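For reproducibility, we list the full input for the 2-phosphoglycolic acid complex.
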Amino acid sequence: MSRKPIIAGNWKMNLLKSQAKDLFEGIKDFVKDYSAQELPTVVIAPVFTSLSVVDTVACNCGCEGNKISIAGQNCHWENSGAFTGEVSVEMLKDAGCSYVIIGHSERRQYFSETDEMINKKAKAILAGGLTPIICCGETLEQREAGVTDSHIASQIRAALEGLTNDQIASSVIAYEPIWAIGTGKTCDSDEANRVISMIRKTVEEVSSSDAANSIRILYGGSVKPNTIAEQMSKSDIDGALVGGASLKADSFNEIIANTMKVAIAK
Ligand code: PGA
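The corresponding predicted structure, in tokenized form, follows.
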């Protein structure tokens, strides 16, 4: 079973439309020199107001645009209705998205998202034919208290509850230790690989070994051009969810380039 690497850029609440367009063009310019086979799956998650701008840039060059997939940073689980401020999976699809990030620690922490909500979102995303990127991760306090594995296993079990094995196999998980997000502190790559192997084992327990071997599990937390090669060399790390370093074409493109140097499909 082979797993194609993913490099996903999470732009968070950054960049106005014209800036988003310039950055997306800078990435498109880089990926155009490589075949889709050579490239990892490249995913960009802009703010909602820039989705149509980047979708236009992605599509205006025929097949080149297909080399970058677009993601929403969040969604609601209902299709439509009286949910002021929310956006549905169908709307994200309509705006050009094929992925949706859910359960990011910033959403859990600042917007009180629960495991149950994340599970509803995962179901809606998969039912709508899109791919969820399900985030999980521990705080520094949890790590120091020795409950990292149990906490993450319980986040994963809750997020995947009620999904079919095929749905799980096609999903993406991002392990993002909260203390490593935006801090410049990366998790030691052997430790990240250990936690990700534990996540894969948890996936197997709730589904099948096929699904566990297929699901792509990323590392996130201060990923930079000079950290990615070592991270990608680990057995269970299938790519990265990149925040800060995805906001500049140079650093994001270098992360893609360094991934191609080491990444053999796993
Ligand atoms: P960071 O963010 O790369 O800036 O640490 C990662 C994330 O939050 O997805």
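Residues 6-265 form a domain with the TIM Barrel fold (CATH 3.20.20.70). The chain has a mean pLDDT of 95. Both points were considered when choosing residues for closer inspection.
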